[in-house]
Amino acid sequence: MPPPSGLPTYAVVCLHEACCQEAAQYIADRLSAPRGRGGDGAELVVHQEPMRPNGLIIHVSAAEGRLLQLAEEVGVKKVDRDGVVRAFRVDEREEFPPSGDSGCVVGPLTLSDVHRCVLYAMEALHFPRELRHLPGYAKSRVPMRGAPVLSAYREAGHVDTFPLHDDETLHKLHARWKSQSVFSPPVEDIREYFGENVALYVSFSSFYTAFLIPMAALGLVQFALDRFLGISFLMSDVAFACLNLVAVTVFLEMWKRRSAEHEHRWGSGGKLRKKRPRPEFRGEIGVNRITGKEEVQYPVAKTMRKVFFVSLPVTLLCLLVAFFLMLASFQVSDEAEKIQCECSSHLHIFFNFRLTGSCMACLWTKRRENLPGGSWAPWPPTCLRRCTRCWCFS
């Protein structure tokens, strides 16, 4: 059920049966209140509809001017008349025409852009710092102090929020996707409806599936050669592994080129590096010194407190443990060397005894061979001197 203003519903807030009327009215008032410094309101169009059996649905929409303002706030990038992808600006709206026959909803904004802007405005609402409990729930234990409105109610289990599908656009996308090959999905249409993340995933899946087909064929050929022709199993495995290595390298280079094309066409370069803070982030609203825009910031005092009382002690403790482990490793190494030296000396003595015994046995055998009848004879002084020399020089 669309709002009475005639605008389509872009998102809904479903209030559970346990949600009280005061909380529902507070959420609706904050969503529709004019926007001021500190994010007093989202300046959206809302309409309440009863939900069976005892729930409530809040339809959320936005006027065209407000959507364009949100697009500039969020940093949506579109193609201008010169074919350059750059950030959208409201004062340069005429420079951003609608893109061809695609599903542009408001000016150059597609449905995914509109959903992104509306959800950002909804989630950017924060409670005043002086508020200590959820409106309608005086005994709530949800941490406040500038917490996001919808996130706090979700955490308490009272509401759910999600964007709505456009059935007509979705059916058109389904028909177009179904008519095309598995290896060439309508990536641009998917991007305009679901956004860059889903479109990039679909593009990679189709590209990777196309790459796996020749590799699977090579695997079947290798299996047939091993099974039916009796070719060396080891050699065929080595050859197949080398082919896999080369194919993976080629695949990565080709995917780099395709992802670079997507990045250039969609203007998503540096998206992670220049990512804005999440609207659900809890902190104080301040002005970014670099961009000059208002955003939720973490207090500097709490940051320094965590650095000096958490990060620094943990780092010093880890360094201390590493230092003592290093000393222990040195001591263990010294003990191991001492044990090795003692074992070497014992072995040396043992081998000396064996060598001396061998010398004595040889001399004794030679002495008996020289006597008639192999009779026994006492050790002469010459043999004893030879054994002593053998022990000393060994």
pLDDT average, as an integer?
79
Structural class: alpha+beta
* Overall shape: extended
Oligomer: single chain
Q: Please provide the ordered H/E string of secondary-structure elements.
A: EHEEHEEEEHHEHHHHEEHH
Radius of gyration: 40 Å
Per DSSP, what share of the residues sits in E-state strands of 2 or more residues? 5-15%
- Strand tally is 10
Model description:
The chain is an alpha+beta fold. Among the domains are: 164 residues, no CATH class; 91 residues. It has ten helices and ten strands. The chain has a four-stranded antiparallel sheet with strand order 2-3-1-8. A two-stranded antiparallel sheet has the order 4-5. Strands 6-7 form a two-stranded antiparallel sheet. Strand 6 and strand 7 form a beta hairpin. Helix 6 crosses helix 7 and helix 9 runs antiparallel to helix 10. The longest helix is centred in the last third of the chain and has 71 residues. About 1% of the residues have low confidence.
